[in-house]
Specification:
By secondary structure, the protein is mainly α. The protein is 73% helix and 0% strand. Pfam families: TetR_N (PF00440). Keywords: DNA-binding, Transcription, Transcription regulation. This is HTH tetR-type domain-containing protein.
Length: 190
């Protein structure tokens, strides 16, 4: 007879958040209920209530944990030393694609958000867009219209990440980075 080890509070919380993330990614926010999460974790609803006082609190905790994880990947991507001859935009996109490949479920939450997310999701997404555009403003160079260049690069980076998430076999990093490099020559030349 095998006995299961009882999870600590933080371990149980992580398990609940993982289950919630999976339900959201596979079925959307509307599918998250106390019963669904409890069943996915093999616990009672009471255990979920002990960790999260409300369903919206559970969703916000999951969003906050995942956005922090995505931000960590982004910060690591843009902080890597730039190799000689590589342009900063393509190098940053390469790092972000590495982060996406390391945690695709996390990145799906934000790059392919399900309908019905709480207002906090949209607040976090707006903050993420601002951080990304701030980084892009440092690498676009001097153009007639830097704001437009930043917006275009942001849209390109977002689409490259979406392609990697939705059809990774058809969109290997080498293919995506070739496009990033091509566009970067036009929009980041100093």
């Amino acid at each position: 007879m095998t006995t299961r080890r009882r999870l600590s509070g933080p371990e149980r919380r992580a398990q609940i958040l993982d289950a919630t993330r999976l339900i959201v990614v596979e079925e959307g926010y509307h599918a998250v209920t106390y019963d669904r999460v409890a069943a996915a974790c093999g616990v009672t609803r009471t255990v979920i209530y002990q960790q999260f006082e409300s369903l919206s609190g559970l969703l916000v905790a999951m969003i906050d944990r995942e956005i922090e994880h995505a931000f960590a990947g982004f910060r690591e991507a843009v902080a890597r030393p730039l190799p000689p001859g590589e342009d900063p935009f393509t190098h940053a996109v390469a790092g972000v694609l590495d982060a996406v490949d390391a945690a695709p479920t996390t990145w799906r939450l934000f790059m392919l958000p399900a309908e019905g997310g709480p207002p906090e999701l949209h607040q976090r997404l707006a903050r993420a867009r601002a951080v990304t555009r701030s980084h892009l403003s440092r690498i676009t160079g001097h153009h007639t219209d830097p704001e437009l260049s930043i917006r275009i690069l942001h849209a390109v980076a977002d689409e490259l990440v979406r392609l990697r998430l939705t059809a990774p076999a058809a969109h290997p990093p080498s293919r995506l980075l070739a496009q990033a490099r091509l566009l970067s020559r036009t929009l980041t030349t100093r």
